[in-house]
Specification:
This protein is mainly α. It has one domain. Helices cover 42% and strands 8% of the residues. It contains eight helices and two strands; from the N terminus they run E-H-H-H-H-H-E-H-H-H. A two-stranded antiparallel sheet has the order 1-2.
Length: 184
């Protein structure tokens, strides 16, 4: 079972993150700061803390994942600069967080292969073109050439005729058609 994450956002807004203007960059820094601020750690007292460094690692030292974005990653992304291979996982997490922070809307759902086919069928019954079907999108070449290194893929789907508002009638028709199977 995989997870599908959908974000409603214009391609120009995503492109605007790379080499962002000062006001946009400041807003994106605030989004990243809220999302990745380190948790506050209360100092632990007690007898062991008074004995000194008897452990290889100081007990209060945080363990940072290689996919955890750092402030430098934000600046690299906003400048549109080269992302080193060892920082692609962190950059993907950062990019997804920034997209989620400025998207018009988003949704997440766990999907099996059968549920993915059911969703494609519901979209087709609702009037969506096959070119925006999820199976077609997943089988096509990626639109974002940034290797995630974490088992995820980033894809861009064109909006239907009418842009963002073009999805509304399709969504209404999909809700009116029969519900998706439960995958059993």
């Amino acid at each position: 079972m995989g997870e599908l994450r959908l974000y409603a956002i214009g391609i120009e807004e995503v492109r605007g993150m790379f080499g962002a203007s000062p006001p946009v960059a400041e807003h994106l820094r605030e989004v990243a700061q809220r999302a990745f601020a380190p948790p506050s750690v209360e100092a632990r007292g007690g007898l062991l803390s008074k004995l000194g460094p008897i452990f290889k690692r100081v007990p209060a030292t945080p363990v940072i994942s290689p996919t955890q974005p750092e402030p430098h990653d934000v600046e690299v992304l906003l400048a549109g600069a080269y992302v080193p291979p060892d920082r692609t996982g962190a950059t993907w997490r950062l990019l997804e967080t920034l997209v989620q922070g400025i998207a018009w809307g988003s949704t997440r759902m766990g999907l099996t292969a059968q549920e993915l086919d059911d969703l494609d069928f519901a979209l087709a019954r609702g009037g969506a073109s096959a070119s925006v079907g999820l199976r077609h999108l997943l089988n096509s070449a990626p639109s974002l050439n940034l290797d995630s290194g974490a088992g995820t893929e980033g894809r861009l789907a064109p909006a239907p005729e009418g842009g963002r508002d073009g999805w509304r009638p399709i969504g209404r028709r999909c809700r009116e058609s029969r519900p998706m199977s439960s995958g059993r």
